[in-house]
């Protein structure tokens, strides 16, 4: 056995990348089938995948990628048309591949039935073969007229030294697997008996095996034509060869027309170069960008983050001590420590940042599949995919977003007929927008579909026994986030199993974010997700409740007011506070936590969760502070009231309140 | 006289398969080696007419072994055995003097073809 286990992680990491690239490129290819660069990239990726799989000894994967590669090659040489069907087939291959890779990752090696897919692939490959045979007569040597002046000069120079010039074309055997190496071997052998002065396709392409069985050589040698021929024939895996002596006197002058051809070739190169530079600038085509980067194990990064957090804690503690002892001399160095730690903190946060496109880039593909599945015209517009978020947040985002987009496609966007009747464009539009706002990132999923009808929600809620009395239209719509709520009458393959939106909401809340929906009938729905930039270090408000100190995340705080007892009124058995003419439920945190309030409960902290206000009653305010969140573990981790804990400047440990959970029960 | 061959491959299975093909077709397998180091030693001892050399092997890989053998005997006839996806290794081997290569999984005809031509 090859000792490939240690490359496993790398293998999977790279495989994921290549699969993603393939997905993206093929999607793009469907829209721009004429783009040659794309095919090259696709071909390269598939080829690399195959190589990697073979090396790891993953047979099925190798086989599948190999067949795919064959099809790509047919795309490349133009014998196979790029159609919706072929693309769909390729996609199903990619899905199968992804499935296989997932299983392999989990160390499950099972037998896959890929015969169906292989058969379809083969059908594609052989279907074109008939066509290919017709064009196959294209097996010929390089036309003398197309030789440029440099080559002509070289040939003439050779003549003077009694080197004969040969025009050679080699066609490799159909079964030849390593075309690159085979051609290299042939050329290598020729180099031992003469000089290879021109190759078509160029050497790099040949070495990559990036050509269609036939390659052409201009060759100078002192050997006779027969000897040259024999030398080439000494190689295996050759189907046919042509060798001709070059007589330049028979060639036409190097005419401008041919220059054009040469230009074209150069153009091809410059296009490639262009795409190369495009790749390095991570602007528009940043998708395939290869930034100068290193891979870092995530756990190391987490550890780094943790250490920096601790540094922040002790810095705060030092500051505390220096004020306490009035150690003036320490102020200046401490200020520097402060500056450096903040920079360090910024940096580590930035390192952990990942553009949301990491999750967003799967959606174009998903929309494509959905539009086929649902037989709707769908268009997905993604904006702001460069917006960055902490990578833990990014990786958790996929699931809720998938849900929202599926919902939008399935329930939001109407059928073609319905849209036509309403005078809408037949193509349904789904917008996916991301942008940063302060220390939050906003993600918006918007569709121009039928919208959510509050009446239907109300009926459905009533059926499910959910209280709807006194709810505004907006609140009504937000009921879709209620656990166990689903308005769909029929369950489609795509969505609507009744456990949808509440899971989405839960996920977002667990990420410290909020989700909110706005909707107008026949105009569409807009889901707005607000997420914190990072989960590890936050600005917090320190408050006193009884004798205890707690931290509240600052991001959700709207306003703090000092209240008199009379301002808190009872309504429907509930304490409320009127803020901007809105009734805001009052939550006495001390009661929630079972703590005795020592002083007057006289500070109200107004917070917003989604579009809802809550007023938290606390005893005293201490101040604003930057804190590093440490997750609670063990039994403590199960306590819903707390997000985590932090160590304060004075070394005390303080719990961070999970406001979302505290208010949740109140809201229901 | 039948040609004397040294088979180098780390997998017993592959060696058996090759031996089977070769012996059925009039070659004499004089030795087997399971890594590059062994290959170099056995080559010295046996001076075979031909070596089939696997690329991925522990201790010393096929390309390194090829270079070592070639440095001792520049006329050594070596055929590389490659898996798909080892193109660059194969090319390095060719550069270093491998006469041909065969691709796994082995096709009997292909193997014989290759051997025949190299021995010519």
From TrEMBL, chain A:
Region of interest (Disordered), ranges:
265-289
What residue stretches are annotated with the Histidine kinase domain?
289-535
Keywords tagged on the record: ATP-binding, Chemotaxis, Kinase, Nucleotide-binding, Phosphoprotein, Transferase, Two-component regulatory system
State the reactions this protein catalyses: ATP + protein L-histidine = ADP + protein N-phospho-L-histidine
Q: Where is the CheW-like domain positioned along the sequence?
A: 537-668
Q: Which Pfam families match?
A: CheW, H-kinase_dim, HATPase_c, Hpt, P2
The molecular function GO annotations come to: ATP binding; phosphorelay sensor kinase activity
Q: Which InterPro entries match?
A: Bact_Chemotaxis_CheA (IPR051315), CheA-like_dim (IPR004105), CheA-like_homodim_sf (IPR037006), CheA-like_P2_sf (IPR037052), CheA_P2-bd (IPR010808), CheW-like_dom_sf (IPR036061), CheW-lke_dom (IPR002545), CheY-binding_CheA (IPR035891)
Q: Tell me if Kinase is a UniProt keyword of this record.
A: yes
Which EC class does it fall in? transferase
Comp. bias intervals (Basic and acidic residues): 265-281
Keyword Iron (UniProt): no
User: What name does UniProt use for this protein?
Assistant: Chemotaxis protein CheA
Q: Which organism is it from?
A: Tissierella creatinophila DSM 6911
Q: What is the lineage of its organism?
A: Bacteria, Bacillati, Bacillota, Tissierellia, Tissierellales
What gene is behind this protein? Answer: cheA
From TrEMBL, chain B:
Q: Kindly list the organism's lineage.
A: Bacteria, Bacillati, Bacillota, Tissierellia, Tissierellales
Q: Which gene encodes it?
A: cheY
In Swiss-Prot or TrEMBL terms, this protein is called Chemotaxis protein CheY
SUPFAM superfamilies given for it?
Answer: CheY-like
* Pfam families from the UniProt entry: Response_reg
Q: Which CDD domains match?
A: REC_CheY
Q: Which InterPro entries match?
A: CheY-like_superfamily, Sig_transdc_resp-reg_receiver, ST_Response_Regulator
Keywords, in A-Z order = Phosphoprotein
Q: Which organism is it from?
A: Tissierella creatinophila DSM 6911
Does the record carry Methyltransferase as a key word?
A: no
Q: Which residues carry this modification: 4-aspartylphosphate?
A: 54
Residue limits of the Response regulatory domain?
A: 4-119
